[in-house]
Amino acid sequence: MIYKKISDYNVPAVGLGTWEMGGGEQADYSHDRHWITIIRSAIENGLTHIDTAEMYGNGHTEELVGEAIKGFPRQNLFITTKVWLTHLRSNDLFSSFEKSLRQLQTDYIDLYLVHHPNPDIPLEETLMAMNRLVEQKRVRAIGVSNFDISLIKEAVRISSVPISAVQIEYSLLARNSGIYTQNQEKEIIPYCQENQIAVIAWRPLGKTNYIRLATNDVIKKIAEKYHATPAQIALIWLIAQKNILAIPKTGSLEHLIENSKASDIDLSMEDGKLLREAFEE
Ligand SMILES: NC(=O)c1ccc[n+]([C@@H]2O[C@H](COP(=O)([O-])OP(=O)(O)OC[C@H]3O[C@@H](n4cnc5c(N)ncnc54)[C@H](OP(=O)(O)O)[C@@H]3O)[C@@H](O)[C@H]2O)c1
To answer: Each residue of 44-59: b (16+ CB within 10 Å) or e?
Structure first.
């Protein structure tokens, strides 16, 4: 497994996303056993960076993660969660944070992220609250998600505690135009790489657009050459880049094991370039 630094912590470059485990915007309890097994298997296979959010499953996803991590040494896990955009006033943020801790059955969060910016709430207030949680050692590192470059720079300027990670949509299918952010490769990633900020790529496999990756002739050929799958090539292409981590979500044990082995691939610079050209936007 390749490890990347988030603040002072070594974090596996491939983690586990949890969106739609235990519901989307509402809780869905019907597959709890399955999701708990998946999260446990992920940890057993080295995917110890688990990405969740208070908004996922209206809190139920955090509950599933909390249930799944029981029995594993807490210090071996890296748990990221996110505060929702309507909870960015300091008092709301503190309440959200306490709720996340309860749901996750833990007493600290490794990485706490602002899920989305909210122009109606001063960023300073939000970051001061997050800084306080770090000072109290209840949060180890903080960051922002779905912020554009100017807002990332503003967060860096305002926050006394370093902004250690930026989470953005980034994959071969979304390089400079994502749902919420533009110019990931042109602006955001170079800035983060120059400033020791980890970039966590969400939707690294394109979710429902994965078919576009899997059926592309160039990626298929490269996958064959490395005895790998297109998903593994898409992941290694991401994490071979400086400071970049990926958090694919899967409900399949087979895919999970596949994803955990992506970092074993030694992708050449030349093949990386071919992939860039094949998925030019
Ligand atoms: N910060 C944000 O605003 C934000 C937004 C979106 C997502 N996220 C985070 O990023 C995570 C990942 O994004 P995502 O869930 O939207 O999309 P994704 O991880 O790019 O794609 C998930 C899809 O890929 C499939 N898949 C996974 N591994 C595979 C493999 N080895 N081979 C073939 N298919 C594979 C899964 O199907 P199977 O179940 O069949 O494997 C699933 O349908 C989320 O779960 C969430 O934690 C954050």
So the answer is: ebebbbbbbbbbbbeb
Active site residue 56: yes
What residue owns the CA closest to ligand 1's atom 41? 250
Is 81 near ligand 1, meaning CB less than 6 Å away?
Answer: no
Strand partners, 144: 114, 166
Annotated catalytic residue: which of 56, 112, 170, 210? 56
Q: 3-208+231-266 maps to which CATH number?
A: 3.20.20.100
Measured by CA distance, the residue closest to atom 15 of ligand 1 is: 249
Domain ranges of the chain: 3-208+231-266
pLDDT of residue 281: 78
280 pLDDT more than 90: no
Q: Could you tell me if the CB of 258 is within 6 A of ligand 1? A: yes
At how many degrees (to 10) do helices 253-260 and 32-44 cross? 20
pLDDT in tens, 143-175: 999 999 999 999 999 999 999 999 999 999 999
